[in-house]
Amino acid sequence: MSAVVLHAHGGMEALQYHTDWPVPKPGHRQVLIRVGACGLNNTDVNTRTGWYSKAVTGGTDSNAGAAADDADPAWGGAPVGLPRIQGADAVGLVVAAGAEADPSLVGKRVMIDCWMRNWDDPLNRETTGYFGSEIDGGFAQYTVVDHRNVAAVDSPLSDAELATFSCSYSTAEGMLWRAGVHADDRVLITGASGGVGSALVQLAKRRGAFVIALASPAKHEVLRDLGADLVLERAPADLPVALKENTGHDKVTVVADVVGGDYWPHLIDTLVRGGRYVTSGAIAGPIVALDLRTLYLQDLTLHGSTVIPPQIFADLVGYIERGEVRPLLAATYPLQDLKQAQTAFIEKRHVGNIVVVPELPVEPE
């Protein structure tokens, strides 16, 4: 089969396109999926460069990954088995099932829950892995996964549109769930034009919150169309004044952040007493300045959000089927052009998600 394979941590040269990679065979509890499309996300880039290493202090768009320690280059703080097929957001058709997998899935179009769980203890965050990181993912014509990690989806959306959801939207919903976002909240969202950011806008509005999005001006119209109540520059010089002038309040109850970096103290200072901060990324840099007096005197709660409970994915599939969220497909590329697609992803001129589409394969015997 055709597949893009990560052979080492590093630059784009670490990704190699193969046309003779072995088709995986499903294990007893796995299904074999013919991939129709697979979305890109920051985890792919960060794992390739080794950005997750504690030795790296720069943002995800820097060359700081060159400083990564081989001992902790992946999200879980451990090495990734190489070679590895990346790609978490796979959508496709189930074409075969293992002996102990659900046979009714064969012939159905499915989305994949990115979190590989110990299904005997599914809430144990210490025993989770990630699709396309700890096991091979969807940047290929075929992939295999535990049958409990897939859901058939009844939707008129295309494979490419469905491939924009799993990672970004489950990450966003997990953030909002962890922060307990509700209809009385004023939610400030950083990086609002990216995959997770644009998902946060839609999902926070679904919960009835007042949504304030930060993004570059060229992307404001799209974010308003997604439901943002207020869109501001991505780093206003005086954030409280900008909020006060547009909302009547100079503070928010929740900050949902995927950016971090030097602007981070301004975000924390914008929270009301008892406010909540939640993060699932740090594209502008992971090292931030925190005045502990702000944390304890303002009774703030800080949440990190990575591994999410299983119901988040099930809820997301329901939102999609009921039309409560919509895809934001920025561009599609052929699988063999993954390097170009990832370059465009890193440049962040788009709004939403970028997807790669494998060529239609010859069915395996």
TrEMBL record:
Location(s) in or outside the cell: Cytoplasm
Residue stretches making up the Enoyl reductase (ER) domain: 10-356
CDD domains: MDR9
InterPro entries reported in the protein's UniProt record: ADH-like_C, ADH-like_N, ER, GroES-like_sf, NAD(P)-bd_dom_sf, Quin_OxRdtase/zeta-crystal_CS, Zinc-ADH_QOR/CCCR
Alphabetically ordered keywords of this record: Acetylation, Cytoplasm, NADP, RNA-binding
GO cellular component, one term: cytoplasm
Pfam name, any one: ADH_zinc_N
Main location (coarse class): cytoplasm
UniProt xrefs under SMART domains: PKS_ER
GO MF term (any one): oxidoreductase activity
Subunit text: Homotetramer.
Name by which UniProt lists this protein: Alcohol dehydrogenase family protein
